[in-house]
């Protein structure tokens, strides 16, 4: 049977877990993951959690790390009574096979494991697994593996305030928009004095929680942050230096709604009303229109690293639940945004109501004059 749970594997880093993790893994399952890095590099494996039912020689459930081509075993078999000696295993190979098996059992969360290559966790970095808060010895730079977004664990806070120090660090880094979950990457952070209350936010497909005072808080550093701030039927917005909103020279749209109110008065939900902070109603496409788009002319080519959207509650409860982004340097030739090495157009998760703001990062950034 299939014992594979959440899995994201790339040539540089990745994350894997047993099925149902952190719930009890199923009986009579097996899974084999092939980890392959670039030739000339070696794999570093971080054990986030190994909780398999105890048994003699780990016969009921086991985790084994091996080089099948060489016919050698790196570590294991592991179970609850035979656990890894350290949370980090440094191999001398660019290929490792992870073998997980279970028979009949009663308990056990299963396993969570992440990896990175020796090429990426640099000398100043500490390889960080996906689970748990950062270790006390953590330096200013860590390497977060790909695939941390969907593992178990909570985060408290938001990109502007920072995060409660009990948050899962690499998951918080995805929420803050400093790394893309599908790639992972190096994170620069600092620890500062905690604050009384951490406000929740929805960003990059993740919800953070509202949290109380902590002794320390985590702040991620990502240099220039240049997002749009938009109001789509709905508000929208963008930024050239840290924290500054990018100015839009002109708005255009595929259509806009000419509303006739109860008094017979016409009200235009025009494209130029899409800037976040515009008083009253915002932009909305003509009802029934398909493939609607909103276009922003930045006046010149700019570096855009994200987008913040908000709905419009002016008489109508309007918001956009998902959207795609395309960009152009000349206004004629358009390129769809596909994210970090993606083969398909990226669909960004938008708003779930007309009140809250939702942030999404562009990793890599968009360099363009026009954005749709």
UniProtKB/TrEMBL annotation:
One of its GO terms (molecular function) is signaling receptor activity. Residues 4-118 form the CUB domain. Transmembrane segments: none annotated. It is a single-pass type I membrane protein. PROSITE patterns: CUB (PS01180), FA58C_1 (PS01285), FA58C_3 (PS50022), LCCL (PS50820). Residues 237-372 form the F5/8 type C domain. It comes from the Eukaryota. Keywords: Disulfide bond, Membrane, Phosphoprotein, Transmembrane, Transmembrane helix. One of its GO terms (cellular component) is plasma membrane. Disulfide bonds join 4-31. The keyword Transmembrane applies. The keyword Calcium does not apply. Residues 141-218 form the LCCL domain. InterPro entries: CUB_dom, FA58C, Galactose-bd-like_sf, LCCL, LCCL_sf, Neuropilin_MCO_CoagFactor, Sperma_CUB_dom_sf. Gene3D superfamilies: Galactose-binding domain-like, LCCL-like domain, Spermadhesin, CUB domain. It is found in: Membrane. This is DCBD1 protein. It comes from Baryphthengus martii.
